């Protein structure tokens, strides 16, 4: 006898494996931050654990990028995948970065620090809930843009800037009061996630996307330069994406299509004998 519920959701393997990888990275990052806080109480070095936590948060960004791409490429987008992705996101891009900033600087503010970290987490959760509602209502014609700064980008920006600050400290450069920019950034990004500023989703970017040779070479050089300067270059990219949302309305449509990898309008092919 088949006891399966008539509304049992379809679970596609590959996209949801990527989402599971996202969730694992968020869980591992949270564990590393907690371990670092326990070592800090004993006066032991914590830098390596924070580095690992940041690496896991950035790794979660990669998994989050892949799950949606694979689902759309195979035509396997589903309500289950969307909800599972949001649950993973709240761990990897909500709890983990909020806890990271709290441990590094916000605990100096005591209860105010709790509130700032929770405010980011709350706004992230509400942002994901709003996104799911909009996606469900427009499932027949998906939105091309994100309304508000995406939570994975917000977490990536926080993690990459924290990595840059840790690099400064380890190289015996003075951070000074710069670390107090993190709480300000946390609050700013909380509001940005609910803003009306639109950001490209890059949903049209897939394995069949074609670009000119100079654009391809430029992308390869950018990736290579980022890998060689991983302590500070990811922060530049995330800050650039944040600023892009503000300048985007003033950029011509042709340049925007090139940057956002939107498909170009193909000229009509004349029919023989017409």
Describe the structure in your own words.
This protein has 274 residues and is mainly α. It has a single domain (13-259), classed as CDP-alcohol phosphotransferase transmembrane (TM) domain (Four Helix Bundle (Hemerythrin (Met), subunit A), Up-down Bundle), CATH 1.20.120. 65% of the residues lie in helices and 2% in strands. It has nine helices and two strands, in the order ααααβααβααα. The model is unreliable at 265-274 (pLDDT under 50).
Secondary structure: helix percent: 55-70%
Q: Which structural class fits the helix and strand makeup?
A: mainly alpha
CA-CA gap between termini: 61 Å
CATH topology: Four Helix Bundle (Hemerythrin (Met), subunit A)
Task: Assign an overall shape.
Answer: globular
Strand portion, in percent? under 5%
- Poorly predicted runs of 5 or more residues: 265-274
Neighbour order of strands in the largest sheet = 1-2
Just name the CATH architecture: Up-down Bundle
Number of helices: 9
CATH superfamily: CDP-alcohol phosphotransferase transmembrane (TM) domain
Tally of domains? 1
């Amino acid at each position: 006898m088949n006891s399966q519920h008539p509304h049992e959701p379809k679970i596609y393997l590959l996209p949801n494996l990527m989402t599971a990888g996202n969730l694992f990275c968020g869980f591992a990052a949270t564990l590393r931050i907690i371990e670092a806080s326990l070592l800090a109480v004993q006066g032991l070095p914590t830098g390596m654990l924070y580095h690992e936590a940041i690496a896991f948060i950035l790794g979660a960004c990669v998994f989050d990028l892949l799950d949606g791409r694979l689902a759309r490429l195979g035509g396997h987008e589903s309500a289950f995948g969307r909800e599972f992705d949001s649950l993973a996101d709240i761990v990897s891009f909500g709890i983990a970065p909020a806890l990271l900033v709290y441990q590094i600087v916000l605990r100096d503010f005591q209860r105010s620090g709790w509130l700032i970290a929770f405010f980011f987490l709350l706004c992230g959760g509400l942002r994901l809930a709003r996104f799911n509602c909009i996606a469900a209502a427009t499932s027949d014609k998906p939105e091309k843009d994100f309304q508000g700064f995406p939570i994975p980008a917000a977490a990536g920006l926080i993690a990459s800037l924290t990595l840059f600050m840790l690099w400064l400290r380890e190289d015996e450069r003075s951070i000074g009061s710069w670390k107090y920019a993190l709480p300000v950034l946390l609050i700013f990004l909380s509001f940005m996630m609910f803003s009306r500023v639109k950001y490209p989703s890059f949903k049209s970017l897939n394995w069949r996307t074609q670009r000119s040779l100079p654009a391809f070479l430029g992308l390869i050089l950018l990736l290579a330069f980022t890998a060689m300067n991983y302590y500070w270059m990811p922060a530049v990219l995330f800050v650039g994406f944040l600023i892009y949302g503000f300048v985007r309305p003033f950029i011509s449509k042709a340049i925007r299509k090139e940057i956002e990898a939107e498909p170009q309008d193909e000229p009509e092919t004349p029919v023989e004998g017409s």
